[in-house]
Here is the input.
Amino acid sequence: MSRIIFCYMKRNSRLSAVLHVILHMAERAKPMTSEELAKHMHTNAVVVRRTMAGLRDAGFVRSEKGHGGGWIIARDLNTLTLRDIYNALGSPDFFALSNRADAPDCLVEQSVNHALDTAFQEAEALIIERLGTITLADLAADFHRRFDAIRKERKSHDL
Here is the structure.
């Protein structure tokens, strides 16, 4: 009798959330507080400060203290790739899939695990390589294209 195990793992959306707030920061072009960023990330300011600290350590953002202070982008968006941000976040796992380890001496399990490990490693390497080709400036340009298209569409409906 075979055993089927269902496991639910929460998706890790930190990379997406951080990219989201960085683009908001770029549009604002002045410091944003942890509280403001937390609203965009749908989390609390403590999580934002902890997350942004990794980006600060990598030199991607800086924090300014005092009245009017907050987080600000420290690098040109053309020089930052999605892989840079991914690495600054600690290179979280892409896949929630894993191998069985119920019978490590079983040759069938070893064959299956080897094939899956190879496939997972190759897939992750391709994703990370692709992230290195996309800059934050590319994301900002895509946002502006979408924004302009909506604005033009609204103007044409108003005529």
Summary: The chain has a mean pLDDT of 88.
